């Protein structure tokens, strides 16, 4: 009897393996979340950047620039409108979904991102405003949809009907049940963080900057997390400070080992490249993290920098974070010479100087030795 059960379990595991379904934390919280971040970047983030460019081009009193601004603005709006679908495709691709399942994931993602979180199943009332579950709602719904879709994919002769029905049915069902409570939870969490940062800018500036910066360096998407909770205002500015401190900090602190190639790959790419070294020598994380603990409250109390959503969790990656800060400060009417100075100091100059000082002190006392921060490959 025991052998039969063991054989059944083994058979089911083999079935999952044959369908490329790997149930693990890495699959869902690293790979899938990475796909989620790519989808966010390709839609909401780039849409926001295009809309900002269009806004300023449209101010030029010239028919050509006005026409170009109109086109770019439309492109930005449309890109933002398909955020859910883009996230769905990104997650499906990360989970190695077949083409038909991936196409359905786009529909599930669009639905989950747009489904109002005010009223849930059976008419349960949640919120007095039409909030949505956003990226996190899409994340959960699409994962279930894709994994179940992969299970039935190419299992029948009518695959063209069965796979979409199962994928869409599971995804939309999960979204219908989970999106409303997720919407209220994310709304409350975001409001708590944003309000707490306004009331206690020093302490929250340190906490947000350090935590989000660490998340950025870990193989987890800080951009997706910031977008999910709706971080905004000076709380977003603190998150931006933490992310920039990690990227610029590691780029500068590891210059001896990696030269200019390392500066570009980490400063404009990702500090995640240092994770293999951090696993071996965790003390190399100290300089950038200490820098973030200082630049966070500087951003919230001295310069009062603002940044919203996904851009707050991007740091200097492709200069997305500073561009997002520019957009947020423009929208709030707080963009002036002092804000420009703040962006330069918080995003580039201060974390570079602080990380270099801290890393040199640690090298002097022998905590960081030559080669500890050498990038692999």
Order of helices and strands: HHHHHHHHHHHHHHH
**Radius of gyration (Å):** 23 Å
Helix content: over 70%
Number of strands: 0
In round numbers, the mean pLDDT is: 87
Distance between the termini: 51 Å
Descriptive overview:
The chain has helices spanning 2-18, 25-57, 63-81, 83-94, 99-114, 134-152, 159-199, 201-217, 222-229, 233-253, 255-267, 275-280, 286-302, 320-331, 337-364. It is mostly helical and 377 residues long. It folds into 2 domains: 15-190, no CATH class; 200-364, no CATH class. The N and C termini lie far apart (51 Å). The model has no long low-confidence stretch (mean pLDDT 87).
Topology of helices and strands:
Blueprint: H1 2-18, H2 25-57, H3 63-81, H4 83-94, H5 99-114, H6 134-152, H7 159-199, H8 201-217, H9 222-229, H10 233-253, H11 255-267, H12 275-280, H13 286-302, H14 320-331, H15 337-364
Sum this structure up briefly:
With 377 residues, the chain is mainly α.
Main attributes of the structure:
377 residues; mainly alpha; 2 domains
